[in-house]
Design goal:
It comes from Cellulomonas cellasea DSM 20118. InterPro entries: VapB-like_prob. By secondary structure, the protein is an alpha/beta fold. It has one domain. Helix content is 18%, strand content 31%. The chain contains three helices and six strands.
Length: 99
């Protein structure tokens, strides 16, 4: 099992962070893949196979921790790539929201 669960949509309230610059204020840290719940059920294969998929975006995945659960909001292709390389850890910006 790669992820804790595969979800659909964001169950948490809007946090207001949209751009990479806004997310840049959240410090990155390591998270375990098996602790993440995805917010997307599908993966664009072009993003997974692209060598420069982060060229215009953030280098780190975006995770929202809400009610003790860590949701992978952006960076599904990075997480799957890490799993394919047998790495259980992902570097991500983790926004902790109060419930």
């Amino acid at each position: 099992m790669i992820f804790k669960a595969v979800g659909e949509g964001r169950p948490y309230p809007d946090h207001g962070l949209v751009t990479p610059r806004e997310w840049g204020t959240v410090p990155p840290r390591q998270v375990r893949l098996d602790e993440l719940v995805t917010t997307k059920r599908t993966l664009n294969l072009d993003n997974l196979l692209s060598e420069d998929s982060t060229f215009y975006g953030d280098l780190f995945a975006h995770v929202v921790q809400w009610k003790g659960v860590m949701y992978l909001e952006d960076g599904l292709h990075r997480a799957v790539r890490a799993a394919l390389q047998q790495r259980p850890i992902l570097h991500a910006r983790v926004l902790v929201m109060e419930s």
